[in-house]
Amino acid sequence: MRPIQMVDLKQQYLAISDKVNAAISEVLNSSIFIGGPQVNSFSQSLAAYLGVKHVIPCANGTDALQIAMMALGLQPGDEVITPSFTFVATTEVIALMKLKPVFVEVDTKTFCISPNAIRKAINPKTKAIVPVHLYGHSAPMEEIMEIAREHNLYVIEDNAQAIGSDYTFKNGTTKKTGSIGDISCTSFFPSKNLGCYGDGGAMCTNDDTLAEKLKMIANHGQKTRYYHEIVGCNSRLDALQAAILNIKLPLLDSYIDARRKAADFYDSAFAQNNKITIPFRAAYCKHVFHQYTLILEGVDRNGLVEYLSENNIPSMIYYPVPAHKQQMFAEWGGADYHLEKTDWLTHRVVSLPMHTELDEDQLNFISKNVLEFINK
């Protein structure tokens, strides 16, 4: 049996190494490292895949969130509603922009932001909502968009963990996550479902005016070289990373299928254990399993993590400290929040290895060891 990795990027690379190496060589031979045909091609292909009019690449997913908030004209003191149960980048950018993060609860089934919690948090200072499609499961976007329209709020989708997921609306129509809000942001960090071999990110929108502004901000606030109309930044996806993503994008659906197959195996192994809650799938969402995350009840979670490690099985806790309890948010009154559902999850979740290269022997070994510890 091959060594088990949390994410096995090497095996994934080996399966496509000839194509990747050729694409990298093409960029090196062209010596066009910033912009150029590889970046343009990837932007167009991703737009077609997601069903959006515009994809604006940038340096990473965190930059994408910052540029999105800049493009929407959010001002210091404006309030942005966000889940506390998320990777810190989502909330960090709000604070970086001198906006006020307003932390709200998530649904303990989906791990995603609760529409009821959003409604309770809205006040005259609220300007935007940032739903996070956590672990590969979509937030309830139809209801979130209804709330946003009702209160004239912007919606910025954090799609870093759910690219490729399909969302089905009540009328039966389907859209990809990342194509529903005013702007969506994603990351191509190597471990993502669609990952490059360094940092990378993108913003997506169907609004022509917003698209032009996003492009300008990401490029020093200029449309024409050396004529800077607005304050911007320097955030670019380089051609080498775009070339790799051009190879991997056509494989994304097959990667997702492999993740779902692994998730189905885990489900079968754990479904009858009353100390384990397997990942929930809402009817509106096709889960893409960026993570396979269990909820444990009456289990020594740290003991399980240690036991798995002793048996050469990695595992992770995403996330042990919610945003509202991070020291960086003390000045925004983080300690004043009482988010019982969020705190409940942070003490119970654990994620098992999940990637495209998991085989049955590995899945059997992981599942057997989890159950051995829990049932002893």
Description:
With 376 residues, the protein is of the alpha/beta class. The protein has two domains: 9-104 and 111-250, Aspartate Aminotransferase, domain 2 (3-Layer(aba) Sandwich); 251-375, Aspartate Aminotransferase, domain 1 (Alpha-Beta Complex). It contains twelve helices and 14 strands. The protein has helices spanning 9-30, 37-50, 61-71, 88-96, 115-121, 141-151, 208-218, 239-248, 252-270, 301-310, 340-346, 360-375; strands at 54-58, 79-83, 100-104, 126-129, 154-158, 166-168, 174-176, 183-187, 201-205, 222-224, 227-228, 276-277, 292-296, 349-352. The strands form four sheets. Strands 1-9-8-5-4-2-3 form a seven-stranded mixed β-sheet, with helices on both faces. A hairpin with a 2-residue loop joins β10 and β11. The protein starts with 8 loop residues before the first helix and ends with a helix. The mean pLDDT is 97.
What are the main properties of this structure?
376 residues, alpha/beta, Aspartate Aminotransferase, domain 2, 2 domains, 7-stranded mixed sheet, 3-stranded antiparallel sheet, 12 helices, globular
Produce a short descriptive summary.
The chain has 376 residues and is an alpha/beta fold. The protein has 2 domains: 9-104 and 111-250, Type I PLP-dependent aspartate aminotransferase-like (Major domain) (Aspartate Aminotransferase, domain 2, 3-Layer(aba) Sandwich); 251-375, Aspartate Aminotransferase, domain 1 (Alpha-Beta Complex). Helix content is 39%, strand content 15%.
